[in-house]
Amino acid sequence: MLFNSFEFIFLFLPLTVCLYFFISRLVGSLSAKILLLSASMFFYARWNPAYSVLIIGSMLVNFGLGKALPAHPFKKTLLMLGLSGNLGLLFYYKYVDFFIETVNQFTRQQWPLVEIVLPLGISFFTFQQIAYLVDSYRGLTSEYNPISYGVFVSFFPQLVAGPIVHHREMMLQFSSPANFRINGFNLSKGFFIFLMGLAKKVVIADTFGVVANTGYAGVELLSTQEAWITSLAYAVQLYFDFSGYSDMAIGLALMFNIRLPINFDSPYKSKNIKEFWRRWHITLGRFLRDYVYIPLGGSKQGTPKTLGNLFLTFLLGGIWHGAGWTFVIWGMLHGLALVFYQLLQRFRFQVPNALAIVFTFLFVNFTWVFFRAADFSDAFTLLERMIVQHPGSSEFFLVANKYDSPVWLIGIILLFCPNSVEIGERFKPNLRYAILIVSLFLLNLLYLNSMIQQDFLYFDF
């Protein structure tokens, strides 16, 4: 089931919200949490019922390990077993075919691929549970019941593509009595934020996606201008697709009186690569900092070690995003850029803000090519055509012009306007916002009926 489906918007969501607060008032909070857990598992099972067993098994094992860790006499060994199990599961479902392909290339063997369908959200719920185990080992978790833990892991607004939430910021919310009482302001504000995120996805991201997909499908035919249009279209598509999903998650959670962390803060306004990673996919950056960079030693072991830790952290971040050498290169490039930035800071080198934003965006846009391209051949072909002058085909522009609507201008302008979080903070339940909600709702309905709808990009990660 997808957020951008009629089934979700007109059936699942209103039914779940109504039942949640009705059961909470009539029976109690525990029953409401059971309902929310059941609804979340149904939401996940609509994609592939067989993988429900996977996530349920993962939750049961990790909850048991988390409860046992604080007082276990061999807790370090137990933690290693838990981490190995989670990472092993992630490796099997996400990376085993990539590993086999790499071995075949280097050994000239023909080992058959496993060809497993990637379970939705496995990267996200695995990282959440790894953080839970590590914090349990450190004695930072409390005694939680399995229902609360199950809701923490499987809460449907953020289950499939984040934000990556931390138990500290979620568990107490699922235990607060106030959160089980219907709140009209949170309902209306949450629905408003959800509609803004939905518009980002179906109106802007999917429109740019048509052009990006057309360009990447035939990179060898593109002119220099068309290559730039292709790369920029994907940069805009990716931002509005993933930030749109995160906004929808935040809005949906708020309807249940749950506050999820912000995941995007206008990253294309960044003046350097370090700032970019403080604004882009914030919860992933937080996880990598707390559970990879700092355990490696962080910045406390001298400059060479610090830079090495920084590079390794972003290399692992690239691998997390996808099973392919293009993602490895993408992570390496961002790691090297951060190392270069750290070294440059020693010289107190200053660049005018406007120029710094342009330089940062150009670097990010060039590296997105590796993130999106099917292989190195396509990536280097597109980059070469962006740099070296080439004539191109007119067929690409037939597609580009077809979707060259005001959406293009609106999408680019919105990148530099107040973001949806900032707009949401100004929300007031008055006539002005009521008209805006109705307008967004009708606009989304119009585009939901269009033929250009595409899956969320981060479903592949």
UniProtKB/TrEMBL annotation:
Its main location: membrane. The keyword Chaperone does not apply. It comes from the Bacteria. One of its GO terms (molecular function) is acyltransferase activity. It is a multi-pass membrane protein. Belongs to the membrane-bound acyltransferase family. This is Putative poly(Beta-D-mannuronate) O-acetylase. The lineage of its organism: Bacteria, Pseudomonadati, Bacteroidota, Cytophagia, Cytophagales.
